[in-house]
Amino acid sequence: MGQKKLIKFAAIKEYQNVLEYPQDMPGKWASFFQALEKSSTNISLENLAITANSKLPNGHLVQPLVLELACGRGEYAVGLGRMFSDQNFVGLDLKGNRIWKGASIANRDGLKNVGFVRTQIELAPNYFAKDEVDEIWITFPDPQLRLSKAKKRLTHPKFLRLFQQFLKPNGLVHLKTDSPNLFLFTKTVIELFGLTLITATDNLYSTEFMQSEKWDARCAIKTYYEGLNIASSNCIHYIQFKLDKELPLELDEKLKEIIAEFEITETHDSLARNGKQAME
Ligand SMILES: C[S@@+](CC[C@H](N)C(=O)[O-])C[C@H]1O[C@@H](n2cnc3c(N)ncnc32)[C@H](O)[C@@H]1O
Prior knowledge:
α1 packs across α4 (96-108) and α6 (180-192) packs antiparallel against α8 (251-260). By secondary structure, the protein is of the alpha/beta class.
C-alpha cells in the first residue's frame, strides 16, 4: 500500500468525525452529533444515549439524519452539511483514503453536523436503528452493467430492502448518475414495485429542468466522479423517489426478465471504471 494511503488511514483513526466499523451505533446518531459539537477529545460511543423519540435527553430536538451511501470523498455529506446546519449528515464508504478527504474538509471548516462511517453498505443496518434515517443520497455508484451483476446495483430491490430497515416510512432516496442504464434500471424498479416517483430527469442541468419547479438546489453539488463522465453520456441523470411500499421477493424474478431485454448502450463497463479509479 502507498505511503499516502497509510498516512490517510492513520489520520482518520484520530478524527472524531470518522467511525470505522463502529459497535452499538443504532439509535445513537443524534447523541453522536451533539457530542461532536461539544467535544474536542475522544467521543465514547458506549456512553452515548439512544434516542427513541424526537427529543434528546437534554430536551433538544433530534435533527433529521441524511445518509450519503458510497460517498467516496463525501462531497454531498460536506456540501449538504454547509447548506443545512439544522440537519446531520453521514457519509458511508468502504475506502478510508476517500473518506479522509471529506472528513478533513469537515474538520477544517468546523462542520459539526457531518460525520463518516467506514464500512460496507451491505452492513448498513448494523449502524442505524429502524426509522433513524430521513433521506438517502447515492451519487455516481458503479452501474454494474453486466446482467450477472445486477444485484450489486445500489437501487436493486435487494439493497432497497436493506435501506428500508433504517429509512423512515416514506423516506426519500436520491440517485444521481451518468449511466443511462442505471437510470433506466432504477425507473423500472420504481415502476415494477409501485414506489412513488417524485422526479426523474435524464438531463439534470438542462435549462428547461433547472428553470422548472422540480429543480432541487441540492442537486447542484458536484462530486468527483461526476466530473469524470465515465459513461460518456454527457448527461447527468437524477431520480428522486419514496421507498414507501413493501418490496415482494416474488417480483425480483420479473425484474430479472425485464432487464434481460435492456440493450447495453454504454461503451464502458466496470473494468473501464476501475481503470479510472486506479488513476486517482
Ligand atoms: C464510483 S465511486 C463514487 C463516489 C462518489 N459518490 C462520487 O460521486 O464521487 C463509488 C464508491 O462506492 C464505494 N463502494 C463500492 N462498493 C461499496 C460497498 N459495498 N460498501 C461501501 N462502499 C462501496 C467505493 O469505495 C467508491 O468510493
